[in-house]
Design goal:
Structural class: alpha+beta
Number of domains: 2
Oligomer: single chain
CATH architecture of the largest domain: Alpha/alpha barrel
Helix content: 25-40%
Largest sheet: 10 strands, antiparallel
Number of helices: 20
Distance between the termini: 54 Å
Number of strands: 31
CATH class of the largest domain: Mainly Alpha
Length: 762
């Protein structure tokens, strides 16, 4: 048996799934998906499944939903309403095996055992199974699949199998399934093909090479069609056949570009190395990422594994080399939300990348810079200045939220999020500012970040209208709590808007002080004069925020406290969301909250909650939240951890982890990657108390009593710091970079490279 096909032995680093069920298969394919930020692939079985095609029979459930995705490859499918969607490319991993003319299929015969293993440490999908055919022939196989972290254009599949009988006629067919579905062919050659999308004019190139060896001898393949290989032989009992396939995929964004030559070059790189060297390079790249990204918890094995699962998918989703794409709500693991990008990326994912992989964070923020023209157009269409980012974004920056969808009875249902959920522009600004504060990336700030901050600030000044009371109001919005639509003065929206305007003023002053030429050039290009800046200063002081000065309690939106009280705990045992259980009208008329709203504000802007007001607001809103979104529990966990509610924080963390780790999760459409990013935040920023936004790196830990220690690494302004927290002390080691001052609770100490600094926790 090939050692390469064996999983890591440490159980903290692997997830396994036994057997097969049509009810859970699509969810398993999402959970065990693998990728590298450019390519993503669902963990569909490659050998024992039949063909897949689009079916109009909606009442038939697909036994498997194989998909391979290329980040940024969007087109407009024939859907109603029409919205851009991520285009699946050829399924290059399927292998069709016929034994004495009968196909090996999961639905026929008996699966004696079958295990899929996601090796988190090595970034591999491994399979090990035994199948008895109806005629009695027994197949035993192991498989490895990967999308290379070392060369993002490259994929690898290795299949080793044997039969228990002599003389069985074996036919192995390997091809690129559903090649070019919905795309126009550009070229089709022996080992290379390219297709172009019909609407966007983007193109994908794919190249492949495959080998088969038996008993150490390489067998010659029949090549009846391009990208198709066929081998035939008669079996020898126990003799292993090893099938290896390398694939290369490239994307071209302009009609005049041909991706095929780059795909051919990528295939040449991998075939010249050989599959074992490709595997070794991939494993080395993952090992390097884990050195930086891993978080170690002593005292909670379940949460440890869940956190590694989260970091695995976060690492698999990012590509620091491509600043024209971002990360959709389900990453590259499923079709849900069409691959669209939401506020999830900036609020739930960026803190992870900023802390451990700033190159990836920068690329994600540059995507927002490149799509700034679309945000300006959206603001202009609604009569505002500046930039309003789309609630759902694909590749161009245009709003991609459908305006309506058809309900179960065929009646159109208006979708208001694209029209009213405007806090996205503050969320993007928030991520830009905190990336710059943590990294000190002045080049990014001058060339991209400042323009985003100024244009989003300009939007909010024009959006917050002065009314008869002399205050500025932001009406007709949807906050994070999407159960309540078309509300006025949502506290999250208004406070984040005010914060964005204040940062806009701060960045103008910063540019003028440090880079006056750049400041003058940017102000000229944006036509930003002193009179407009004076209006910004006035706006900061006039925006309504709904805060009661006596109690410090924010009203979630104007009139929220006049709505009916409803005990959310009474509905905790229902499997369906509370708005489905009690109806939309009753939900909108009550104080039930879909997800963290004011609680999210506590997490993002703790400075807006002086004294005990954070606890006051959390105590008020936590019991009102029904957690109708996968984003909610992690945000509550983060705030609860900071406030010292350890047991509640742990409960919410385990709830977040269970969304994609339970045996039967509702994650067929892809993993909920924002929840995974939120889990990392709850652990590292919540219990670990990491803060990268100040003038120094700060740590204010509050470990739960059952944890012995928490260890992680972080980057801060060209330095790498290793941190270990125990109930008694914080240990910090400066691994790279110049000496620095760090804050541990109320203490400020200097950290020198190569020495371990220990600070006691009273």
């Amino acid at each position: 048996m090939c050692k390469e096909l064996q999983p890591t032995q440490d159980l903290h680093w692997i997830l396994t799934h036994e057997g097969y069920s049509v009810m859970t298969e699509s969810a398993v394919e999402s959970r065990f998906a693998f990728g590298n930020g450019f390519l993503g692939m669902r963990a569909a079985r490659s050998v024992s499944r039949g063909p897949t095609w689009a079916s109009w029979l909606g009442y038939i459930r697909w036994a498997s939903w194989p998909r391979c995705y290329v980040a940024g490859l969007f087109d407009m499918p024939n859907t109603e309403p029409p919205v851009p969607a991520l285009v699946p490319v050829a399924d290059w991993s399927r292998v069709r095996l016929l034994l004495d003319g009968e196909p090996l299929a999961a639905r026929d015969g008996e699966m004696l055992y079958g295990t899929r293993t996601l090796d988190l440490r090595r970034g591999l999908l491994l399979s090990d199974w035994m199948h008895r055919m109806p005629g009695g022939v027994t197949f035993t196989g192991q498989e490895l699949r990967l999308l290379s972290q070392a060369d993002r254009a490259t994929g690898l599949q290795v299949l080793r199998f044997a039969l228990d009988r002599d003389g069985v006629e074996v036919r192995l067919e390997a091809s690129f399934g559903l090649a070019g579905l919905g795309m126009e062919p550009m070229r089709l050659e022996r080992d290379l093909a390219a297709w172009r999308t019909e609407g966007t004019g983007k193109a994908v190139g794919m190249a492949g090479a495959a080998t088969l060896s038996r008993g150490g001898d390489v067998a010659e393949a029949e090549r009846p069609f391009p990208l198709r290989w066929i081998w035939r032989w008669r079996s020898v009992t126990g003799q292993a056949a090893v099938f290896a396939r390398l694939v290369a995929v490239t994307r071209a964004d302009r009609p005049e570009d041909d991706p095929a030559p780059r795909a051919a070059a990528a295939l040449e790189r991998s075939t010249s190395l050989g599959w074992r060297a490709v595997l070794a390079a991939h494993e080395a790249a993952w090992a390097e990422r884990w050195t930086m990204n891993d978080v170690v918890i002593e005292g909670d094995d379940e949460l440890q594994r869940a956190l590694r699962f989260a970091v695995y998918h976060l690492t698999s989703a990012a590509n620091p080399d491509d600043e024209r794409v971002s990360i959709g709500a389900r990453g590259l693991t499923g079709d849900a939300y069409f691959g669209h990008v939401f506020w999830d990326t900036e609020i739930y994912l960026l803190p992870f990348y900023t802390a451990v992989w700033p190159e990836a964070a920068r690329a994600l923020l540059m995507y927002r810079f490149h799509t700034l023209p679309g945000a300006r157009e959206k603001a202009a269409r609604m009569g505002c200045r500046g930039a309003l980012y789309p609630w759902e974004s694909a590749d161009t920056g245009a709003e991609t939220t459908p305006e309506s969808v058809l309900g179960p009875n065929g009646t159109p249902i208006e979708i208001l999020t694209g029209k009213m959920e405007h806090h996205i522009s503050a969320d993007v600004a928030y991520a830009v500012w905190h990336y710059w504060r943590a990294t000190g990336d002045d080049t990014f700030l001058r060339q991209a970040g400042a323009e985003i901050l100024l244009e989003t600030a300009r939007f909010w000044v024009s959006r917050a209208v002065v009314e008869a009371d002399g205050r500025r109001h932001i009406r007709h919005v949807i906050g994070p709590d999407e159960y309540h639509e078309d509300v006025d003065d949502n506290a999250f929206t208004n406070v984040m808007a005010r914060w964005t305007i204040a940062r806009g003023l701060e960045v103008v002053a910063l540019l003028q002080a440090r880079w006056p030429d750049a400041a003058a050039a940017l102000r000229t290009s944006l036509a930003l004069d002193d009179d407009e800046l004076a209006e910004w200063r006035e706006a900061v002081g006039r925006i309504v925020d709904g805060r009661d000065p006596a109690s410090g309690l924010y009203e979630q939106f104007a009139g929220f406290h006049d709505l009916a009280l409803l005990d959310v705990a009474d509905y905790a045992d229902h499997a369906l969301p509370i708005d489905v259980v009690i109806g939309r009208e009753r939900t909108q008329g009550s104080q039930v909250v879909k997800q963290a709203d004011v609680v999210a504000l506590i997490a993002l802007l703790p400075g807006e909650f002086p004294g005990s007001s954070a606890k006051t607001n959390f105590r008020h809103y936590e019991p009102r939240c029904a957690h109708g979104s996968s984003l909610s529990a992690a945000m509550h966990a983060l705030v609860a951890a900071r406030l010292g509610h350890a047991e509640m924080a742990l409960r919410y963390m385990h709830e977040t982890a269970s969304l994609d780790l339970d045996p039967d999760p509702n994650s067929a459409g892809g993993v909920r990657i924002a929840g995974l990013g939120g889990l990392w935040q709850a652990v590292v920023r919540g219990f670990g108390g990491l803060n990268l936004a100040g003038e120094r790196l700060e740590i204010d830990p509050r470990l739960p009593p059952q944890w012995q220690s928490l260890s992680f690494r972080t980057r801060w302004r060209d330095r790498t710091v290793a941190i270990k927290i125990t109930p008694e002390r914080v240990e910090a080691t400066l691994l790279t970079g110049e000496s620095m001052e760090i804050g541990v609770r109320a203490s400020f100490v200097t950290l020198e490279q190569g020495t371990v600094l220990r600070v006691g926790l009273s």
